[in-house]
Amino acid sequence: MSDLKAHSCEACSPDAPKATEEEKQQLHKDVPDWEILDIDGEEQLHKVYKLKNFIKALEFTNKIGELAEEEDHHPVIVLEYGKVAVNWWSHEIGGLHKNDFILAARTDAAFNDMQ
């Protein structure tokens, strides 16, 4: 497996191609704990992280926010006591792009850094 979190994100425009089935299968190997869900006709990467308490969950949420701002690519984040749910997908193309898998890998790395 490659070190997906180290890959560079590409600029994504509305006419950018979605990841092919083959690309999704390959990229998903680097973030196997993420589910690929169809939500309102758009594929999204989804994962729930469990943390000790609300403060830790908030700290992790802020780390994800920093990742999102660095790439100008923003997920859905749901913060609860001791739990953070994250969905990555490319809004402009209405589905998954390589960038989403890269940011999923970076989200995992941010979580692991907190442990």
From TrEMBL:
Protein name, per record: Putative pterin-4-alpha-carbinolamine dehydratase
Region described as Disordered: 1-27
The UniProt record lists the keyword Lyase: yes
NCBIfam families: PRK00823.1-1 (NF002016)
Signal peptide positions (record): none
Cited SUPFAM superfamilies: PCD-like
Family: Belongs to the pterin-4-alpha-carbinolamine dehydratase family.
InterPro entries: PCD_sf (IPR036428), Pterin-4-alpha-carb_dehyd (IPR050376), Pterin_deHydtase (IPR001533)
Record keywords: Lyase
